[in-house]
User: What shape does this take?
Amino acid sequence: MVVGRVLNHIPEYPAKLYKSALFRHILITGTTGSGKSYTASRIAERVCRDLRVPVLVVDWHGEYSKVLSEYTLIEPRELPLQLLTGEPGELSVMSSIFELTPPQEYILEKVIGQKGPSKIKSVESLLDLVEALPEESSWFRESKLSLHRKLSLISRGGYSDLFKVYNAQDEALSGIVEGRREPLVVDVSVISDLSVKRLYASLLVKRLVDYSTRRLKPLLVVLEEAQNYLSRQAPVKPICEMLREIRKFQVGLVILAQSISQLVEDALANTNTKIIHSVKSKQDLDAVEKTIYMDYSFITLVPYLDVGEAVYTTISLKKPILIKVE
Ligand SMILES: Nc1ncnc2c1ncn2[C@@H]1O[C@H](COP(=O)(O)OP(=O)(O)OP(=O)(O)O)[C@@H](O)[C@H]1O
Ligand SMILES: [Mg+2]
Assistant: This one.
């Protein structure tokens, strides 16, 4: 698949991205306006059409329906996500985003264990169950109240229809991913609360990645504004783990971020393909220099690249090249 053309080379020739590289993850970075989303949209389109790999775009700003020529657009309310699955470690997304303390996690596990996830019908009834727990001690009471406060965010303001506590989800997911020739765009920009948006987006990725790995189906996920999932301060654990583990399966992530110095190490170390548009901040330039070995003449070009131009490295290349994405 072509991503653009190689610059500074006569005759010019196409810069390629191979299917095998998709599943070893891609990082796209650059300052604002340097061309990250445009690049991701070209990749999404061609991966779907030419490589026949389904693509999910988690559309943070609601811009992909303007830049893609073909797509299927889904509003989060049309795809309510399952909060609980009954699987081990299932609280890790909620726990990362709501910064649950160990006692709060313990309480939540206790409530779910008592009743069984399939018996809890709605977010409200989950909250009621938390409320009804007998208070064993003062720490318990405090943790319970604060857990209740955190969870009540997703039952307010119409957010509760974004989530289902427990329902078999596979059918809904298979309906949206199977046999699709155009990217699936989920517009999360309609969710205004930042933690609810992060929770919905992270669960969406988790559910779809789990679905694809269980069925040994390929999938590419485009994650805009990746600092919301992969920042050093507040990483969403299951998404970090995906970067480490899913290359065993045919599931790849495309991570877009303006500032790579703010991202967890996994985001740099575990992305084999990197597309570096113009980077101007000293901190981020240092991070680029640490992550990719390139000649001095190359690194000095990075701040002055034009829109759409990028330093490109991928597994099939011996050393970084300069490209124009088109
Ligand atoms: N390779 C390209 N060829 C032609 N036009 C491009 C190219 N890349 C980007 N552009 C145009 O430049 C503008 C900015 O690009 P884009 O939105 O992709 O930047 P960005 O890096 O995602 O910015 P932000 O950080 O603000 O999201 C857009 O109008 C886009 O159409
Ligand atoms: Mg963008």
Observations:
- The pocket of magnesium ion (ligand 2) is lined by residues 36-37 (CB under 6 Å).
- The mean pLDDT is 91.
